[in-house]
Write a structure and sequence with these properties.
It is a single chain. The chain is built from nine helices and no strands. By secondary structure, it is mainly α. It folds into two domains: about 90 residues, no CATH class; about 90 residues, no CATH class. Helix 1 packs antiparallel against helix 2, helix 1 packs parallel to helix 3 and helix 3 crosses helix 4.
């Protein structure tokens, strides 16, 4: 995992250096589009695999986002980037990972994701008990028990269920993927 994260960070910084050489010829909306297409998409690719891994992996993914925001607003390296990221409406890296994990979980629950992922997710309403519980009416997921907290908690069924159950009810009850992504981003922002 370490080699993959490091190579992604390195590739993103290389792209940022190339964009920096031509950014004076671009308008701000064109620059933002170029950054989203070439840098942000590279950071977001298979993002949900990194759940829990960034705590132990030295990563410069957040530095990539900060450098991209500085490039958009043409600020120096000592400028604070939190207002820049907020103005661009870009999530920080841990929130990006949480965002894409929840989007993948939403796709699993609605049958949009591949079948092998759909089978990993168990809703609380599928619990076979004779009683009628309040959890059967909510859109909650069962969190499978794990033996190892270091590896087991990073498994997709566990991480997805915990991320999903941490969301507010109004976000989980979204009727479409577009509405879900909008509500989720607002919630995480």
């Amino acid at each position: 995992m370490r080699a993959n994260v490091t190579s992604t960070d390195r590739a993103c910084f290389a792209i940022l250096r190339q964009i920096n050489s031509v950014c004076h010829f671009l308008t701000r909306p064109a620059l933002i589009t170029l950054l989203r297409a070439l840098v942000i998409s590279k950071l977001d690719y298979c993002n949900s695999v990194l759940v829990g891994a960034l705590a132990v992996l030295p990563s410069r993914r957040q530095s990539v986002l900060k450098a991209a925001a500085r490039l958009v607003f043409s600020t120096n390296r000592s400028a604070h980037t939190i207002p820049l990221l907020q103005e661009l409406h870009w999530l920080r890296d841990p929130e990006r990972i949480h965002f894409w994990l929840c989007v993948l979980t939403y796709c699993c629950l609605n049958g949009i994701a591949p079948q092998y992922l759909n089978e990993c997710i168990l809703s609380a309403s599928s619990r076979s008990s004779g009683r009628q519980l309040r959890s059967t009416e909510s859109i909650s997921l069962l969190v499978p028990s794990t033996c190892r907290t270091t590896i087991g908690d990073r498994a997709f069924p566990v991480a997805a269920a915990r991320a999903w159950n941490s969301l507010p009810q109004r976000v989980r009850a979204a009727s479409s993927i577009v509405l879900f992504r909008r509500e989720l981003k607002t919630c995480l922002f």
